[in-house]
Amino acid sequence: MIAGSSQVSRWLFPVIAALAVLVSTAGPLSSLSYAQEDGAEPAAAEPAADAGAPAADGAAEPAPKKLDALTWTMQALSYYFFVFLLISVIFVALFVMNMLNARRDNVVPLHLVESFEACLDENKVQEAYDLAKEDDTFLGKVLSAGLEKVSLGYDKAIEAMQEVGEEENMKLDHRLSYLALIGSLSPMIGLFGTVDGMIRAFSVIALGGATPNPAELANGISTALMTTLVGLAIAIPAIASFSILRNRVDRLALEVGITSEGLMSRFQTVGRK
Questions:
Q1: How far is CA 232 from CA 126, 145, 237, 239, in A?
Q2: Model confidence over 124-182: pLDDT tens digits?
Q3: pLDDT tier at 240 (50, 70, 90 boundaries)?
Q4: What is the pTM (predicted TM-score) of this model?
């Protein structure tokens, strides 16, 4: 149904991989860096006299290692990073596929309408049927189904067209429903990670005694917050794209019905006395 799918596949997967990484790491943390050791501050500058002391007196303490935003995000998300990365790749792939399927040229191609109408104007019904049969678009399938039953009467032809139209519309809606599934599933995974992270944080307090390790405590809290953030970051565009594409598909399906009935209206007298 999608024309030129072999050309699309050349650039689709690199784009999916790049966008998936951007979705998983997007946010206000992208321009920040974090210290690997919580609360670590660079040591105050030693007096000039001490700076000139021989190295044998003692080596200076190394500066705390810094983590870039991507590394910190991966550590905060823990194994949820790979779950969200997989969901992001699937979401981008589904979005691109549904965008291509919802193009007007793949649902109501203008060239088919013009050619089909020209054949009927010249009373070339068989050529019109062959033209519609060879066209793998939504409208082509509806028109070919109508011409197959037109010999039984106009009402039978319209009934056959409606059945095929409902079937093709269901296929488009079925593909779109996965976007809604991602929009519902991502926040739930984020909520699961939030609960998991908070349990980790409180277990540090419960098992660490009076002075729990701040770094371990911060790890659990960061997991709780980051999973929620990434889950919402995936769910919001998924729900928005589902709503937009669903409206577009419904509008194109309605246009297919109006166009096909208009083209087949010249057969209204067939089968009637």
A1: 54, 44, 9, 10
A2: 888 988 888 888 889 999 999 988 888 888 888 889 999 999 999 999 999 899 999 99
A3: very high
A4: 0.68
Three-state DSSP class for 157?
A: helix
Q: HEC states along 58-83?
A: CCCCCCCCEECHHHHHHHHHCCHHHH
Report yes or no: 229 and 191 within 8 Å, Cβ to Cβ.
Answer: no
Where do the domains of the chain lie? 5-32+78-267
Residue showing tokens 């991502």 = 186
Query: Cα separation of 222 and 75, whole Å?
Result: 9
Question: Encoding tokens for residue 92?
Answer: 């981008």
Which of 67, 71, 91, 89 is CA-nearest to residue 25? Answer: 71
Is residue 100 classed exposed, middle or buried when 0-12, 13-18 and 19+ CB atoms within 10 A define those classes?
middle
The encoded tokens of residue 219 equal 């790890």
pLDDT tens, position by position, 84-128: 999 999 999 999 999 998 888 888 999 989 988 898 888 888 898
CA distance 89 to 74: 16
Closest by Cα among 241, 11, 192, 5 to 84:
192
Longest alpha-carbon distance in the chain: 115
For the chain, how are helix, strand and coil distributed in percent, rounded to 5? Answer: 80, 0, 20
- Length of the chain, please? 273
1 vs 18: CA distance, rounded Å: 26
